[in-house]
Amino acid sequence: MAFKLFMHPLSSYCHKALIGLYETELPFESVVVDLQNEAERAALVKLWPMGKFPVLQNADRSMTLAESTTILEYLAEHHRSKVALIPRDPEVAREVRFRDRFMDLYVHTPVQQIVGDRLRPAGQKDPVGVERSRATMTTAFEVLEAELSKHTWAVGEAFSMADCSAAPAIFYADKLMPLGDRYPSLRAYFDRLLARPSYARVLREAEPYFAMFPG
Asked: Over the stretch 64-78, which tens digit does the pLDDT of each residue have?
């Protein structure tokens, strides 16, 4: 198989890329990388020196793409299906890209900072950083609540790259700061994401690994 996705089933950014791959129905092979395994980590670093996943490789074209947004941009341009991850309309496309960055910067990143702090040894915790991350997520939830009362998906009525980014970001954020009843529009949107076949499949595949999540 030409395409390989180097990933881990618990990684939110890998979820983001996987949703896009399942939406476009591009055939690919998943290669699970255990970063605690020296050989597997070295193989990933050889592909992408930063040593982070996801990484999408196309052996037939000697092409390697790192970073989830870059992977989704590639899929949107070269492997279009009935789902347009990035719309052709430039104004709508700009909004999709903005919402993708919003999710990564103000939900994904704070989630990772909080989780990372839980993995730190005693005496090296960063309570101030955790509170800042929680405050950022709270503001992001409020922004999303206002926006998602207006339409079905992150940008209008069509599923897009922005929703690929939103699904895992909100999934893990909800584990750290449960949405509850405070954000009804965001909660309803999250329920739609959970019911989306592409993300439901990602979660089924990740289920055996959830016990490892320090949530």
From this structure: 999 999 999 999 998
